[in-house]
Every structure is written in C-alpha cells, then in structure tokens.
Amino acid sequence: MATNSLTLESVRHSLIRQEDSIIFSLIERAHFPINSPTYSQSYVSNSIHTFSGSLLRFVVEETEAILAKIATNFGLQICLYIPGEVDAGRYANPEEHPFFPEDLPPSVVPPHNFAKFLHPPAASININKDIWDTYINKLLQLFVAPGDDGNYASTAASDLVCLQALSRRIHYGKLVAEVKFRESPQEYEPAIHTKDRDTLMKLLTFEKVEEAVMKRVAKKAMMFGQEVTLNKDGNLGKYKVDPSVVSRLYGDSIIPLTKLVQVEYLLRRLD
Ligand SMILES: C=C(O[C@@H]1C=C(C(=O)O)C=C[C@H]1O)C(=O)O
C-alpha cells in the first residue's frame, strides 16, 4: 500500500476494484441455498463440545487465528489490533479487521512496517459486529435462495469470503476520510470539535459518486453473473445474482456503513 501517495482518485479507484471482489463473492455464495444450520448454534455445539456458536462463527474464528499467525507476510494480512493495546508490532495492516479480535494468537513472522497514513486512533474503529449482523440478518436473504442442500461447510467458507470483502471495503472508509480531511482540514475541523455528526456526514457525502457506484455495481453484476452458453438463444437475461439486488445492497447497507466508518474516523481525527 503506497499510502503516502493516496488521493481521492486513488482511494475511489480501490473501492471500484473492490466491487469486483464483493460481486464475485456474492455470486459464489448465491450458488448455495440459505442452508440455515450454518448459522444456528445447536448444529455445531452438538458435535464440537468445546465451542459454542454457529458453524460460520467457528470457521471465521479459526481462519482468523491462522491468518493472525502469518499476519505480516505474503500479503495475507489481518489487523492484529487488540482493544486497549496499540502495539506497533502487532497492529499490522490497517486495511484488515478481524471479526473476533479477542484471543488472536501472535504472529510467527516478523512484523512488516506498514506505512502510517491513518491517524492512530483509527485503530480503535472496528464495526465488524454491525457488518456481521447486517450480513446474516439482512443481506443474505436478499440474494440467496431459500432451501437446504447440506453443503454447510462450503456455505460457511463462501460467507467468510463475503464478510472479509465487505469488511475491507467498509473499513476502507478510514482511508477515504483521511484523504478528504487532508484535502480540506479547515472544512472538517469545526464539526470535529463540536462532534457534529450530521455536518460531517454532509461534508463527506457525494451523491453523484454514490449514484455512479450503484449503477456500476448493477452493470458489473450483469456482466460477471450472466449465464454463458454456446447456444445462440442461450439464457440471456438470467443472472446468478440479481443486479438490482446488488445495487440495493450497496445503497442500503454497504455505502451507509462505509460512511459511518468515515464519520467515526473523522470524530477522532483531532484526538
Ligand atoms: C467513499 C466515498 O464517500 C462517500 C461514500 C461513498 C461510497 O461508500 O461509495 C461514495 C461517495 C460518498 O458519498 C467517496 O467519496 O468516494
């Protein structure tokens, strides 16, 4: 991450690229029906007696523990921020946030010196709990068909990829907010001093950009999710994930959560 050269254009470019990862992850997840035992506590606790939580939680916690061990190498990064403890060696990539930061094991590889672009209190912002709840209770039902095919492990693995892509995009709001603040600190400072969330929200909002995002993700969902056949009259008009739903996920959840991260970041920008 060449963070010192970040501009509004380059952070927007990254958000555009991340759209691809999010849409592909949704397409992969939509391949399975809802498979509700993946999210129920009883399914796992009946078989793994040492763990109380859903299969999805088990998969995410275990994966994060492995990623934390190799946190600063090979580009496989996870933010090792432990609440209450800002330790440069363990606070690794500021773009990654664990869903379960408690009890992560220490890294077994030497720390990488990530460029310090963000204001340090940014480390305390992690809204993955909201992202988790939104994903499970609101988003899944919108793009996944009802039903149960028994593929719970694959379902949880696909959910993990969706959650990581969403979390990365939403927390990228910290970088967006920092760039916006650096471009015109005098505009933001009064509202930061008075902790005026509404004004901060207005200042950082660009409606035209949001409209473009929502149109573009629908178009990408059409292109990435079309059924490809060799038959001339094929399956035109059939998509693996409904493009209008992808647009809605962005408009109703992903963009608002990214803006929430931006506001939270700006509120701490002068601490
Ligand atoms: C991310 C930005 O900030 C806001 C949030 C947006 C988003 O989440 O896509 C888009 C425009 C802005 O209203 C931006 O300005 O690019």
TrEMBL record:
| Catalytic activity, as annotated | chorismate = prephenate
EC number(s) given by UniProt: 5.4.99.5
Q: Where in the cell is it found?
A: Cytoplasm
Q: Does the keyword Cell membrane apply?
A: no
Report the pathway entry. Answer: Metabolic intermediate biosynthesis; prephenate biosynthesis; prephenate from chorismate: step 1/1
Q: Which class of enzymes does this protein belong to?
A: isomerase
Any one Gene Ontology MF annotation carried by this entry is: chorismate mutase activity
For this record, the Gene Ontology CC terms, alphabetical, are: cytoplasm
Do you know which InterPro entries this protein is assigned to?
Chorismate_II_sf (IPR036263), Chorismate_mutase_AroQ_euk (IPR008238), CM_AroQ_sf_eucaryotic (IPR037039), CM_II_prokaryot (IPR002701)
Keyword Hydrolase on entry: no
Q: Which GO terms describe its biological process?
A: amino acid biosynthetic process; aromatic amino acid family biosynthetic process; chorismate metabolic process
**Which parts of the sequence belong to the Chorismate mutase domain?**
152-262
Alphabetized UniProt keyword annotations: Amino-acid biosynthesis, Aromatic amino acid biosynthesis, Cytoplasm, Isomerase
Mind telling me which PANTHER family this protein's record contains? CHORISMATE MUTASE
Name the UniProt record assigns to this protein = Chorismate mutase
Supply the source organism for this entry: Quercus lobata
Upper classification of the source organism reads: Eukaryota, Viridiplantae, Streptophyta, Embryophyta, Tracheophyta
